[in-house]
């Protein structure tokens, strides 16, 4: 069966490069802002490039925050990429201005504490055991990052032994930051899998395989 994937078009993100990369996994990919298509698809990808505030305004403009919430309430897979991952958190702070995010995860997106910003280029990641997102990828593989902001502190810890804790992957640029999250139907990467060569292609194929 060919999986149906929608890449949400809300005016931000490398839509066509992401589309081509996901199509190479064998999925049928549509780029659209249509809420019905986004809700009905087997998988939804939320891209994002640029400022947190601008991305949130664009996302709310097409009802993307509600679409994400409805999909997750029904256990429907969502993958956030770059700022599309950042907007899933409670808030972002840029130039002293705080903007509310989608609030799917607690935490704040803030400027990286590093001598050189933006963090642009290839970097390794520290993957937790049991990851499905990084299955089949060698530990030393590098992924492509372009960002000045990130989540430096992961605070979500389930208060019940019956709830599976999220798997959080880290990377380091000046200080550690969250590079990827696997949390039930909600997965996300700070790096760009569509620009990360064979390793990124494997990440996308691993996600599509869960749909």
From TrEMBL:
PROSITE patterns for the chain: GATASE_TYPE_1 (PS51273)
Catalyzed reactions per annotation? 5-[(5-phospho-1-deoxy-D-ribulos-1-ylimino)methylamino]-1-(5-phospho-beta-D-ribosyl)imidazole-4-carboxamide + L-glutamine = D-erythro-1-(imidazol-4-yl)glycerol 3-phosphate + 5-amino-1-(5-phospho-beta-D-ribosyl)imidazole-4-carboxamide + L-glutamate + H(+); L-glutamine + H2O = L-glutamate + NH4(+)
In which pathway is this protein known to take part? Amino-acid biosynthesis; L-histidine biosynthesis; L-histidine from 5-phospho-alpha-D-ribose 1-diphosphate: step 5/9
Q: What is its main location?
A: cytoplasm
Localization annotation: Cytoplasm
- What are its E.C. numbers? 4.3.2.10, 3.5.1.2
Glutamine amidotransferase domain spans which residues?
6-207
The lineage's top-level taxon is: Bacteria
Q: Name one Pfam family in it.
A: GATase
Q: Which UniProt keywords apply?
A: Amino-acid biosynthesis, Cytoplasm, Glutamine amidotransferase, Histidine biosynthesis, Hydrolase, Lyase
Gene Ontology molecular function terms on file? lyase activity
What HAMAP family does the database record attribute to this sequence?
HisH
Protein name, entry field: Imidazole glycerol phosphate synthase subunit HisH
| Organism of derivation | Nocardiopsis sediminis
Its gene name is hisH
